Amino acid sequence: MNLTEKVKTGFPQEIEFPELLSQLCSWHEHQNFDKKLSGYFELFENDREVISAWVDRAETQKRLAVFGMSPDGGLYCIWLQNNGKKPIVYLGSGQDARVFAKDIQDFIALLAIGYNDICSADMSQPPDEGSLINPKFQAWVDRVLNVNIPVTGRQIVDAAVRESDNIYEWLVANCTW
Asked: Using the 8-state DSSP alphabet, how is residue 40 labeled?
């Protein structure tokens, strides 16, 4: 089973596996670096069981597709909203739930900036000196997405928050936390 297939196993039938994520998995699999793609972010090879540790209701689980993990075990997911939008969200410890990007393309651009840990980074600032920036990944993003990688993540995150529902409120309404 290749990396794309392994990551795809964590997707519910209700959420289509994005072609761009498939391209990223394929590219990553053929690189000569460890599991970390950018900073401490890792593509997550999972089954549907991991989401049940975070979200207890089956209907709610069908709206979240896990594809990444933070260093502290937090999950990065595609969230299928009622309006059909699919922002990228983070589910962390202590009921931490946030929107980070309006779609997978913006999230990949956010990763390419090079923050060590997106969930704890100050998005108004560039990555700290000594961050684990992956130049191979940045070159791939530049070539495939044909976008300028921003200096900070603020614009990506702010746009996502403006355009998305509130993930924390949705989880409170749809889980028994």
From this structure: T
